[in-house]
Design goal:
Layout: H1 18-26, E1 29-33, E2 43-45, E3 48-56, E4 62-70, E5 77-84, E6 91-98, E7 104-106, E8 111-113, E9 118-121, H2 124-128, E10 136-139, H3 146-156, E11 159-163
Parallel strand pairs: 1-11
Antiparallel strand pairs: 2-3, 3-4, 4-5, 5-6, 6-9, 7-8, 9-10
C-alpha cells in the first residue's frame, strides 16, 4: 500500500485523495467468518439497532464496520465502512450502503436519487468542495435488505474470512 499522504484540509480536517481511498477499499480486511444480520448482537438506542466492529486491515489500517437500522422501518438502514486515521480520532466514511427510506441529492451533479437503495462513495472531489466525504451516491439493485447490503459491502471492500457461511 502506498503511504497515506494528506494534502489539503476539509471540514474533517483532512482530504483523502481518490488513490488513497481506492487503496483503503482494496486493502484486505480479515474477520473470522462472513457476518450475516442473524449473527450480529445489536445494541438498541433511540429507535435504532446498531453494531460497530473495529477491524485492522492487512496493511495495518484501522477500519470500523458500522451497521444501523431503524426498529420501525427495516428499509431505513446503513452499512458503513469507515477509516480511522492513524494516531487520530478522525473517522472518515469511505463507503456507505443505504436502504430505500429517503431521497439523496448529489450536490455537485445536481442529481437526485428518489427513495431507492443506493451506495455512497467517498471522493476527493466532494471533500475539496466542502461536502461530506461520502456525499456522492449511485443507485444500486445489488441488494434489497440489510443482509444483502452487508454482503455487498464485504465483497466490494475486500473482506476475507476463516470459515464460510453455512446456509
Amino acid at each position: 500500500m502506498a503511504k497515506i499522504v494528506i494534502q489539503r484540509v476539509s471540514y474533517l480536517g483532512v482530504i483523502l485523495a481518490d488513490r488513497v481511498i481506492d487503496s483503503l477499499i482494496s486493502e484486505e480486511k480479515h474477520i473470522d467468518k462472513q457476518l450475516t444480520v442473524a449473527d450480529i448482537k445489536f445494541k438498541y438506542e433511540r429507535g435504532h439497532r446498531r453494531y460497530d466492529k473495529e477491524i485492522t486491515g492487512e496493511n495495518k489500517s484501522n477500519f470500523i464496520l458500522k451497521i444501523r437500522q431503524n426498529e420501525k422501518n427495516p428499509l431505513d438502514f446503513s452499512v458503513i465502512l469507515a477509516y480511522r486515521m492513524a494516531n487520530s480520532n478522525k473517522v472518515i466514511r469511505i463507503r456507505r450502503y443505504n436502504g430505500k427510506s429517503h431521497n439523496h441529492t448529489n450536490c455537485l451533479e445536481k442529481t437526485q436519487i428518489k427513495n431507492t437503495f443506493h451506495i455512497h462513495y467517498a471522493t476527493e472531489r466532494y471533500q475539496v468542495n466542502g461536502f461530506q466525504e461520502d456525499g456522492y451516491a449511485q443507485v444500486t439493485d445489488r441488494y434489497s435488505d440489510l443482509d444483502g447490503a452487508l454482503k455487498c459491502m464485504m465483497t466490494d471492500c475486500h473482506f476475507t474470512f476463516n470459515q464460510a457461511v453455512i446456509n
